[in-house]
Amino acid sequence: MLFYSFFKTLIGQQVTVELKNDLAITGILVSVDQFLNIKLDDIHVVEEQKYPHMMAVKNCFIRGSVVRYVKLPASAVDTALLQDAARREAQQPTVPAPR
Amino acid sequence: MTEEAVPVVEPNAVEEPLDLVRLSLDERIYVKLRGDRELRGKLHAYDGHLNMILGDVEETITVVEINEETEEEVIRTIKNTAEMLFVRGDGVILVSPPSRTGA
Q1: Does residue A73 belong to the interface with chain B, where contact is any CB pair within 8 Å?
Q2: What is the mean pLDDT of the segment spanning B33-51?
Q3: Hey, which bits of chain A come out as E strands?
Q4: Between chain A's N and C termini, which has fewer beta carbons within 10 Å?
């Protein structure tokens, strides 16, 4: 849930999504869901000469499972908040509490 | 005999493997990924899938190429950097805290 909430805070930012097939797409983050599926607007492929078949595509949906990386603007990320959230998430018991 | 051992939960204790990752928050770590990729960067967040957010990241991709003429294997590394990177956990092979690797 942490990363779902985190990506929701990044809606409207420009991000670069690198896929497992090495295709990298830059665009404005429009929406995200619990599977970390991603919708991007105003997209362009980073290596357009190498992958010209995407030139006409202006927006897209990316299945979360094919994502390798998402490059983010550091200015849009509150790292202290993220670390606190990660610690809190780690404390949530994954096994039922004793008795 | 009936005395039950009440586990004392120390915040810094390593009880399960992921605790090791928790203790690496705000530290530089080394991450080995599928596809001969390695990352070094500062860990800002992670979850149970090993999805992660890393800061000031250096990515190293190792490529083995065969020289056409000599048929020798040439190992080439490609380095990339990113200031802030989300890494999807399904590609992660191992995560190592900084001290061992000097990441």
Answers
A1: yes
A2: 96
A3: 14-19, 24-32, 38-45, 60-62, 67-71
A4: C
CA distance A2 to chain B (A): 7
- When pLDDT is cut at 50, 70 and 90, the band that residue A97 belongs to is very low
Find out if CATH 2.30.30.100 is the number for domain A2-90. yes
Report pLDDT for B50: 96
Q: Is the ipTM of this complex over 0.90?
A: no
Contact B27, B46 (CB under 8 A): no
Name residue, tokens 């802030």. Answer: B84
Return the SS3 of A5: helix
Q: What angle do CA B87, B57, A74 make, to 5 degrees?
A: 80
8 Å CB contact between A63 and A12:
no
Interface A-B, measured as beta-carbon pairs within 8 A, has a size of 69
Structure tokens belonging to residue B96: 């190592």
pTM for the full predicted model: 0.85
Do B33 and B24 form a contact (C-beta atoms < 8 A)?
A: no
